[in-house]
Amino acid sequence: MEIRLNRIAKSFDKKQVIHPTTLTILNGSFTTLLGPSGCGKTTLLRMIAGLETPDDGEIWLDDTCIFSKERKINLPPEKRNLGFVFQDFALWPHMTVFENVAFGLRARKDTENLQSRVRSALRTVHLENYEKRYPHQLSGGQQQRVAFARAIAVQPGCILFDEPLSALDALLREEMRHELRSLTSALGITSVFVTHDQTEAMSMSDRIAVLNGGCVEQYAAPETIYHAPATEFVAHFVGKSNWLSKTEMFRPEAAVQTPVKGALHFELPVQSVQYLGSTYEITVLYQSVIWTLHSNRKVKPGEALSVYIDPNQIITFQEKEVVSA
Amino acid sequence: MRQIDLKKNLPQVLLLVLLTGLILCPLITVFAKAVIIDGRLDLYQAWQTIASSENVQTVCNSLLLGVCVVLCSTVIAVPTAYLLARTQLAKHSWLDIIFMIPFMTPPYIASMGWILFMQKKGLFQQLFPATGAWSEGFFCFGGLVLVMSLHVFPFLMTMLKNAMLNIPASLEESGAVFGAGFGLRLRRIFAPLLTGNYAIGALLVFVKTLSEYGTPYTLGRRIGFYVFTTDIHRYSTTAPIDFGRSASLSSILVCICMVMWLMQNDITNRNSYRLVSGKGSRPAQTKLSAAGKIGAWLWVALVVLVAIGVPYFSIISTSLIKLRGYGLAAGNFTLDHYKELLTTPKALSSIWKSLFLAVSSATICSVIGTAVVAAVRRAKGFCKKALEGISLLPEMLPSIVLVIGIMLFWNAIYKVLPLYNTIGIMVLAYVVLYLPYTVQYVTSAFTQINDSLLQAGRVFGGTPSYVFRRVTLPMISRGIFAGWMMIFIIAFRELVTASLIAPPNTLVVSTYINREFEQGSVSLGMAMAVLCVLITTTALLVFNRVTGKEKGA
């Protein structure tokens, strides 16, 4: 299912949380909306689901217009045929796992082969023996799986994920990351995933839309976002960024400690060293900013370190107009 | 070793003895009185008393009243709770305070208001002479149910409202996303999540109705509808006095209440879903259309008019009327009744007595209650359970039963401790009745204290008593004060205890109001009622200010 947002805007109490945004989410893709908290990513997702009403613009699911300010179309959430995985899972505590998963089918009065369809959804998430349990009898990861089974049981054109992994602990989060990704690609479902965790976004997505202050700063593949950030915000927010000046930046990988021809050369004092297992993470002081570098050699704080930077990997931004205060 | 143990456990044991004497002994006396007839155990006779047709009638009346009040208050509470929890009305938090007024109004005062309003030549007939005798139809079972429901519905409403607020929006949003329309969501998600809370609320309303004395006494007696409390009161105060009968009725009432509490407990255990999921849970909102909004406000206005408007209008206007024969007429208003209140010794002494009782019982409760909570936290096993259970018992039982028990028990030991028939017995009875308030407020204050705070106090060199003075006490002081204030408010207007065990010629505010209402100057009584409400409301505002600040901290 292709999702098209056309000049969607939204304000809460006169504060504009989404500036007019146009975005197309490709059919079958795994697309992530990434940004710091309060950037409007969840609002955007909830507007697609119909849980918030935009102030302006249009939303299309394939050839169906589900929202249009101009044409006064606003399909309620129950008519949009989407799947949604909530941040707190939102499993109904008074229903068994089976009933939770069957809810969407029953609500649509689509009860043919209900049993086998619910079971197959549960089998997909490896919970076939849990159908009689209640949500509170499940672990966090299992609840997450039920929430996912509930979303796929209705065979929606698209599943929307609202920070679904944030309620899980670190280990489980990583495990579920792989599982969700492989399940959605196996099922070929278009997925829209909201997160503030860049690692999550980078590892799972086909495309990432980086949001800031209600605007999409960049919409591209993860590799592009990392190696060719479109704005300073994206450079800051995704990955480690080392700043040569206000407008010039490089990633840690662009720097090495051995001389390379044509490289920029600096001798800089080491600030701190952390051993990460595969490498040492070193911070050095350049003028008044701190750079993060990788090294496979242990150094001591205070020591001077030779740093060679490949000029081709330096990214330059246009100087922003200085806004007078 | 044993000596150290004894020293350590001594305070607990002493408290246990004290609570047993104050609470358990009177209760046991009631049961004993019900089954020991003429000095010997006579279960047959006891059963005869219980099964007498008069008694059965009383029991049936009470149960019928309880069920009807539950139904009627449900009808009022459910829509109001929904409007206050889920719609645009939710942002008007002053409505919450407005809806507490009926609950905080002493029931006997509200009933008097209704009687003055609806009776023959009453205020309603004066306002709408064209309606003839229509308003007198109020004096029936239905009227009693209505007045009692108007008193208890805020309780049920608050419970339901909080339960509704506790349902995270995502539970309903997910219903919507997965294809359920509004009606289906209401039926399949919203309502089932509330049933447990509703059942608990309904049971508590039922118990409250059964234990209520004020309204059945003022209004029920007038229409000849007798229930547990009024019969117990009648058998204990008017000739021929029959304590055996009132004891046996009390015993049945206690049993019914206990069964209800057990059921309540059971439902709570079975039905409490862990709904609060912390992050990202916020209550859902239904956006009312303009017409819906008008309807909602009309409903709220109607409830406020009936629950607060009518009784307060009656009380206040009656207190200002010069000559009741002329009724509501220009020039027939005066403040003389208030002046009279503040100048006649009888009225003044009743105000002072009530103030004395409220202050002394609140203070004694605060001391004993805090000691009990502190001991409960330290104690283990039987001692802990016994202390906790006994100290909370008075709240679960109808106060009239405890008061009867106190009368019987202290009468029996009059030769040892001549407390009966003095003001001291009143203080004692108030303390017994209101001890649970302190215990509950202080317990909840204690739960906010993390153990590590106290451990930190010890680690940084404080002795246990130093830590108690500098850490624990300041942290629970708000809880103690909240309990003190609550007790002050309720004790100031307490009716049932005062009317049963006040020494001869001792009037307090509530009995003064009743006396004047029944056989003196109604206007004077109502002036006292207004004064009583004013004093307790002021106390309540102080209370809200204090507990409100606590939440902010």
Defining traits:
heterodimer; A: 325 residues; alpha+beta; 8 helices; 25% helix; B: 553 residues; mainly alpha; two-stranded antiparallel sheet; 23 helices; 2 strands; 1% strand
How would you describe this protein?
The complex is a heterodimer of chains A (325) and B (553). Helices cover 25% and strands 33% of the residues of chain A. With 325 residues, chain A is α+β, with helices and mostly antiparallel strands. In chain A, α2 runs parallel beside α4. Chain A is globular and about 70 Å long. In chain A, 39% of the residues are buried. The model of chain A has no long low-confidence stretch (mean pLDDT 91). Chain B is an all-alpha fold and 553 residues long. In chain B, a hairpin with a 2-residue loop joins β1 and β2. In chain B, α7 packs antiparallel against α10 and α20 runs antiparallel to α23. About 1% of the residues of chain B have low confidence.
How many individual helices of chain A? 8
In helices, the fraction of residues of chain A equals: 25-40%
Q: How many angstroms separate the termini of chain B?
A: 44 Å
Q: Gap between N and C termini of chain A, in Å?
A: 46 Å
Question: C-alpha Rg of chain B, in Å?
Answer: 25 Å
Mean pLDDT over the full residue set of chain B: 87
Class per helix and strand makeup of chain B: mainly alpha
Q: Detail the poorly predicted runs of chain B.
A: 276-281
Question: What is the number of E strands of chain B?
Answer: 2
> What proportion of the residues of chain A form beta strands (DSSP E)?
25-35%
What percentage of amino acids of chain B are in beta strands? under 5%
Total E-strand runs of chain A = 19
Strand order of the largest sheet of chain B: 1-2
